[in-house]
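subagent[fold] <- orchestrator: predict structure for attached chain, return tokens only, no commentary.
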Amino acid sequence: MLLKASESKNHLSSYNFGDCAIAFPGTPQIIRTDRIKVEGEKIDLHKIIFENPVETYLFARAYLSDSYLKQGSEIILNRMIRYLLADFDCQELEYYAQNIKYKCYPGKEFHIIEDNSGLIMRLYLVEGKLYLLLVGSDRLKEAKRFFNSFQILSNYF
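subagent[fold] -> orchestrator:
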């Protein structure tokens, strides 16, 4: 469920999704669920996308099955990076993914940046859910606010 929470003074619109919240630079135009298949596992990826002519902001969340989670976070995150980069036809770049964390939870970050434009993608695995944050923009300095606005709401820990 998508609930608009507020608009802040820095011109970001904050959205609460029940278990998490994030702020977009405008009102998302696309809300959809895609069923993807990652190395045999069918996953429903719930996407919220804001786009304009110079940038795309994407937030997605997937609930992973207990059997899939048994593989371990490193394998799951690597498989998702591989799948997403294949979607961009950039599979050879998966080796540039870096380990990151959201609080104590594992994640991966991948970026291609030249000057102030490019693509930044972050994945987090938190309590059986996969969170994807992605920005493709000519103004990546602005993207930092999007990534910094992501939060898991404390009542879900």
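orchestrator: received. Logging for downstream: The two ends are 19 Å apart (CA to CA). Residues 1-9 have pLDDT under 50 and may be disordered.
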